[in-house]
Amino acid sequence: MNPDSIITLVVILLAVILFVTELLSIDLVALFIIAALVVSGVISPAEGVSGFGNTATLTVAFMFVLSAAMLKTGALQFVAHHLGNIFEKNFRRGMILMMILIAVISAFINNTPVVAVFIPVIIQVAKSSGCDPKKMLIPLSFASIFGGACTLVGTSTNMLVSGIAEQEGLSAISMFEMAPVGIVSLVVGILYMLFIGNRLLPSDESPENLNEQFNVKQFLTEIQLVEKTADQDEVYSSVLSETGVDIINVHRDNKSYAVPQEDFELKAGDILKLRGDSDQIQAFKEWEKDKEFFTIKMGDKMSDTSDSKLVELIIVANSPLIGKTIKEVDFKQRYRSIPLGVRQRKGVLNENLLNVKLKAGDIILAETKNAYVQRLHDQETGTNAHFALLSEKNIPKFNRKQFIIVLTTMTGVILTASIGILHILTAAIIAVSLLVVFNVIKMKEVYQSIDWQVIFLLAGSLSLGVAMGNSGLDEQFANSVINNLQEWGPIAIISGLYLSTSILTSIISNNAAVALFAPIAIVTAQGLSLDATPFIIAVAFAGSASFITPIGYQTNTMVYSAGKYKFSDFLRVGTLLNILFWIIATFMIPWMYGL
Question: How confident is the model at residue 207 (pLDDT cuts 50, 70, 90)?
Fold first, then answer.
């Protein structure tokens, strides 16, 4: 290996470690990749930033805007709630229609917001119909993956592979070039989930009461303020700030004031419901021991008030809250909500909530003022959605006029790109411009709707591909693949590329995985003097079809927390599905693409 190859390999290994451990956010890892490769001289500064101007990166950005515009019309929410009625009448029919519907939508719209829209609906349907949400949420995520693999615009992974192909002087993947294999995989995937996967999915054994689910009862305390003494004005304000407890509710003269603002004036006789972790409650008790200002009442009966309610908020994949602590978000002032607990992958957190750093898929249990719940619903359907509500059933607003405009423009993008009249990027830019002109979406919302983490990751991944080419590392890997599998023929090589990409996708980001293997696939095909199309198609499919871990794909991460699954649940249900897709790809791709 030459020095550039060694440097590139070290950067790849460090990036994989950072992706797996999540010590840094994926966009920061992408910047690290670019900086390390440029500083080391493996790629030039121009090559380092070329990924930001790549047609694949820009197309993904504009497709995010089109997806957000469709979401804003309320069409997906409207369809989701009507689907709920079918579930309540016939579970099997509801599952079939849900998976087909999700797959079709995800073939043309970014599947992350699609899944975010359907998660709360599915949970609400499960509660009202007596169905098990754990039998429904993994199929929801998997169906979005099935559909996304069918078209060029179905997932950023497909567009990234297409962009790498163009970068290497090959033809881009056309709009429906992946559809034949994708549709077969879709049918097999749905049948598998209905007849096999459903039996392997766990049952929900968690308590229905949200307090019990989040284990928050012991963190709620009720106090009553007795008659004033001379120095109590200072006492009331200082004890709350010193101990760090939150006022969730103030009961006064048969009236209830939920989540009062900081300037709310307390009076003698007020009954306060406080929230604090065990250390804060203990500190409050120690402070009160020698005082006669408060009468303390303990118990969980005060967790229900007429002016507030408990809601669950799941942090969606592109939320601006990701990476921030609850203290930095300032839930009380921003959302008029008091966090009571956070469910993350490692379990439920009740203590030191202010310092909890939020991640995609985290679920926050919060007590929220009734009058503010509708604002939370408005927030979740915006182009810059922070979260989705799991505990609330809400009839969505459907803007038919805007829906027709968005549907027309998206159809125009698909048709013009498919026929070859316009490049997909050109068509997407025109469509977004028209949506702004027709006032369907504002320019501010255009910027907000783009998932910049994905854009940075795509740019970093593309620079990594350039580095592999400059250093010759792609040729070394390709020669290794050829030497080990050539005697078994090109079908075995395609199978090996698919399997390797699939395994890596389950460990790190799918975009990072295909960025590593797409250049290898291209050089391998060239080394065998074969058409590169089936090789890059195999990598694209493998990068999308990630079922065995909750971290391989964003939608898996979201349902992982929402459904209270275990890591092993994905492994048990997804392993056979991954194997089935591998077998389909191994035999169909060479046949369909003329190998």
Answer: low
- What pLDDT shows up at residue 393? 56
The neighbouring-strand residues paired with 347 are 344
pLDDT digits (tens, 9 = 90+) for 245-296: 777 778 787 777 777 776 677 777 777 777 766 566 666 666 666 555 665 5
- Residue 201, both tokens: 């999915």
Sheet containing 220-225: which strands, arranged edge to edge?
A: 255-258, 246-252, 271-275, 220-225, 294-298
Q: Is it the case that residue 102 has pLDDT exceeding 80? A: yes
**Over 60: is that where the pLDDT of 440 sits?**
yes
Element (H, E) at 221: strand 220-225
Q: If you search the block for the tokens 């792609």, which residue do you land on?
A: 474
Per the CB < 8 A criterion, the answer to whether 48 and 38 are in contact is yes
Q: Tell me the C-alpha distance between 543 and 56, whole Å.
A: 16
Using an 8 Å Cβ cutoff, are 154 and 104 in contact? no
* Token digits of residue 123: 């949970």
Pairing mode, strands 337-344 and 294-298: unpaired
DSSP string, 95-110: HHHHHHHHHHHHTTS-
Reduce the DSSP state of residue 387 to 3 states and report it.
strand
Place of tokens 């408060």: 294
Looking at the predicted structure, is the pLDDT value of residue 230 above 80? no
pLDDT category, 209, cuts 50, 70, 90?
A: low
Q: Which residue has the tokens 């090789």?
A: 535
Residue 124: predicted pLDDT: 75
Gap between the Cα atoms of 112 and 416, Å rounded: 25
Which residues are CB-neighbours of 47 under 8 A, at least 6 positions away?
A: 38, 463, 466, 470
Quote the pTM value.
0.78
End-to-end CA distance of the chain: 32
HSE, side-chain direction, 13 A CA sphere, residue 315: 24
Token pair belonging to 473: 């590392």
Q: Please, what is the Cα angle at 495 between 490 and 496, to 5 degrees?
A: 95
Residue 169, SS3 per DSSP: coil
Beta bridge partners of 308: 305, 369
Bridge partner residues of 297 (DSSP): 222
Q: What is the DSSP string of 315-354?
A: EPTT-TTTT-BHHHHTHHHHHSEEEEEEEETTEEE-SSGG
Residue 312 confidence (pLDDT):
82
> Distance between CA 113 and CA 402 in Å, rounded?
18
pLDDT at 553 over 50: yes
What whole-number distance in Å separates Cα of residue 258 and Cα of residue 256? 6
Q: What one-letter code names the amino acid at 127?
A: K
- DSSP class of residue 257 equals E
Q: Which domains does the chain have, with CATH numbers?
A: 3-205+408-592 (no CATH), 210-303 (3.30.70.1450), 310-389 (3.30.70.1450)
Q: Contact 204/133 with Cβ under 8 angstroms?
A: yes
Q: How far apart are CA 147 and CA 575, in angstroms?
A: 19
Closest CA to 465 of 500, 517, 506: 517
Residue type at 71 in one-letter notation: L
Q: The tokens of 579 are what?
A: 């194997």
